Amino acid sequence: MSFASAGTAQELSFPLVDSQKILRNEKECDIDRRELELRRQQDALKDQRIANLEKELDLAKQEIVLKDKISEIKDMEIVATRRALMDMTQVADRSLKLAETSKPKSNWELLGAFGLVAIIVTVIAAAF
Fold this sequence. Notes:
This protein has 3 helices and no strands. With 128 residues, it is an all-alpha fold. The chain has one domain.
């Protein structure tokens, strides 16, 4: 008998109880390996979720910063509009005052003055 055939014969001569224990241990190890692989996959998924949540948090922070800047710009626009409206009332008041002082004479005022001069000239001409 050769050594290989003696080893095979020895493996086959295990008692049934020992064979069942070895098989049970092998099955438990296989189950443990699968469970370990599933846990590794779960850990990888959890890490990916955490990374996604961190990215989402960063995006939310950037969104808040942008909204704050937009709010600041709107506030500046409101202030500028108020200032422009205040300036417009002053400009309107000045333009009304200038319009009143440099108002051109109407045609009726000019005709009335010429009419008065004509009457005075006629009276003077009639007197001589």
